[in-house]
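Lecture 7 notes. Example A: sequence first, then its structure tokens.
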Amino acid sequence: MMRTLLSLFLILSLAACSRTDNEPGEGGVTVAEAKALDAAAEKLEARDAAAETAPGSTSSGEEE
């Protein structure tokens, strides 16, 4: 019983430590904005990687 209560307390304590989306984060942006920027960067990197492996792609990375 005591282990269960301790486990529950630890889980709830960790959940309380998470930051909300509207709190300021690093670089002067909110947590939600930072997550959106990270997601956009991942999409751009995936697009660039796909373009590099596509047949007939240019090695310079510039569009004509």
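Example B, a different protein, same format:
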Amino acid sequence: MLFAFGCKISAMKKLVLSLGLILALIFFALAAVFIKTFWGGRNPLVMDFILHPDKHAEWFFPAKSKCADAPFILPAEGFIGYLWHDSFKLFEAHQGLDIFSGKQAGQSPVYAAYAGFLTRQTDWKSTVIIRVPEDPLRPGQQIWLYMTHLADAQGNSLIDPEFPPGTYEKPILQGQLIGMMGNYSGNPSAPVGVHLHFSIVKDDGHGKYLNELKVSNTLNPSPYFGMELDARKAGKAIPLCKP
């Protein structure tokens, strides 16, 4: 009986050790993901640019610049900091591009990357979306160009008065002014760094845009701009026009 009791204790110790090992592995795996998300990838580049934009003039792209025969122009001046499929939030992939100006809110113009029809819903303080009936790279497909953070920290819109809330399907030309870059996050006490978020959103097949918050509903912007903008391939490289 004592032998059987001893065996039970030994089995329990092994079980406890096994569970402890599993928990330790889970902890270190989560810690590795946390470190990679918040201190790895492109985060150091973006933080350094926000703090010292004058030291990184070579990272700037001019507004309306264009790579070779790529169909889109760059919608704003600045450093393309975060890329499509970047990771700076736990278990989330970035849906588009974040272009940082290194300036204050309201100082950097934002332009239409491509011609189409602009909509601004009545409750959109900092956001517009442009319907492009014919995808220049996929004939017969419709796409949507989503842009946000066009308001200051308090939510005062920086969108051009030509596009008031409730604007629906207003024709817009490539390179036409949309507004100014801002830092609105939805929470006045916690503004984001001044930047433009830009993403290419898929059509739902019925003439409406899909939910931009899901990366699976967006397209890789690389071929549209003629540079590597997929974070999984670009790594920490500064985006450049492809040769």
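Note on Example B: Residues 49 and 55 are 8 Å apart (CA to CA). The two ends are 79 Å apart (CA to CA).
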